[in-house]
């Protein structure tokens, strides 16, 4: 594994999990890790920040390092990385809710994809990539607008107040 020359002398807000020290440095390493199972296992590389404690020399990989590994997995699978999904949504100047309404995707799924907790499947990745094609966003917005114009009117429902007599009546209810 190669270590780059990038070393920052002191890391603000550093806290060693091993000894409790608050003095440490960070370097960026090319970290190799295994991805997949069985005969489909492959070795991937992620440029990962490694935090080094000045007192006990412990080496720590944090969430940023895990994000770097997730991005390496996404590149290996040929799907958009969490940052690319986030940047796509921002390029369209949409909130997560607006983006979900436009695409029909769930806001929870978008949040997981952008956070890197779960990768999107190939079909959703294709949908996301199509949003970069000129005219696609406008076409989808037209579909959303048409759906709103033709949405079925739901009947007004009324609620019943539960009373002892209603409970008694329900005990004797039968379908005809």
Question: Can you give a write-up of this model?
Answer:
With 176 residues, the protein is α+β, with helices and mostly antiparallel strands. It has two domains: 77 residues; 70 residues, lambda repressor-like DNA-binding domains (434 Repressor (Amino-terminal Domain)), CATH 1.10.260.40. 41% of the residues lie in helices and 18% in strands. The protein contains seven helices and four strands. Strands 1-2-3-4 form a four-stranded antiparallel beta sheet, with helices on one face.
Quick structural gist:
The protein is 41% helix and 18% strand.
Keyphrases for this structure?
176 residues, alpha+beta, 434 Repressor (Amino-terminal Domain), 7 helices, extended
Mean pLDDT: 88
Gyration radius, in Å: 26 Å
Structural class: alpha+beta
The count of β-strands is 4
What does the secondary structure layout of this molecule look like, with pairings?
Layout: E1 3-8, E2 24-35, E3 42-53, E4 59-60, H1 63-77, H2 82-91, H3 96-103, H4 107-115, H5 122-130, H6 136-149, H7 164-171
Antiparallel strand pairs: 1-2, 2-3, 3-4
């Amino acid at each position: 594994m190669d270590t780059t020359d990038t070393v920052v002398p002191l890391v603000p807000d550093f806290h060693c999990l091993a000894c409790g020290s608050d003095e440490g440095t960070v370097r960026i390493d090319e970290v190799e890790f295994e991805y997949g199972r069985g005969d489909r296992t492959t070795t991937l590389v992620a440029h990962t920040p490694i935090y080094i404690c000045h007192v006990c020399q412990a080496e720590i990989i944090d969430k940023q390092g895990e994000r770097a590994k997730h991005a390496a997995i996404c590149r290996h699978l040929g799907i958009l990385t969490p940052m690319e999904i986030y940047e796509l949504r921002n390029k369209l100047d949409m909130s997560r809710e607006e983006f979900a309404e436009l695409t029909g995707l769930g806001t929870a799924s978008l949040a997981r994809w952008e956070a890197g907790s779960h990768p999107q499947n190939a079909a959703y990745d294709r949908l996301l990539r199509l949003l970069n094609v000129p005219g696609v966003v406008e076409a989808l917005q037209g579909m959303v607008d048409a759906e709103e114009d033709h949405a079925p009117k739901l009947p007004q429902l009324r609620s019943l107040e539960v009373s002892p007599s209603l409970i008694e009546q329900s005990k004797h209810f039968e379908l005809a």
